[in-house]
Design brief:
Number of domains: 1
Largest sheet: none
Distance between the termini: 36 Å
Radius of gyration: 16 Å
Number of helices: 5
Structural class: mainly alpha
Length: 130
């Protein structure tokens, strides 16, 4: 496996900013909504992350941007640190452990279906205006 220091720094810096952004947004949403039985903050972060990855994938394809470090910074680093699949799974596990099966189904189904929809929406918006 071959990688450069620039690639590692791009991923690391992107992950740093993505994780901080995820934390700030999720906490802000949870403080505003004050969830009792549903992880709205992480739910919204994941859906926004899906929209962003769709939009950015469309832009990169349309513009033919091939800069490796920029792609690593955005897609692997920032969006990898911003979207939170492991946190999503842990929240779902905790809901199931507490017997909240309707919330489990809403969380899993909602994030997967809305995530797919928003990736498609982001990609389609870019294609529509290109």
């Amino acid at each position: 496996m071959s990688f450069s220091l620039n690639s590692l720094l791009a991923v690391g810096a992107g992950g740093f900013f993505g994780a901080i952004t995820r934390y700030l947004l999720a906490v802000s949403v949870d403080e505003y909504i004050k969830p009792e039985q549903f992880p709205f903050g992480i739910f919204i972060v994941n859906i926004i992350g899906c929209l962003l990855i769709g939009l950015l994938a469309g832009i990169f394809e349309l513009k033919g941007w091939m800069n490796v470090e920029l792609r690593l910074f955005i897609f692997v680093g920032f969006l990898g640190g911003f979207t939170t699949f492991s946190t999503f799974i842990n929240d779902t596990f905790l809901l199931s452990k507490e017997g909240e099966m309707i919330a489990v189904l809403l969380n899993v189904g909602g994030q997967i279906l809305l995530g797919m929809l928003f990736v498609w929406v982001g990609y389609s918006v870019i294609k529509l205006f290109s």
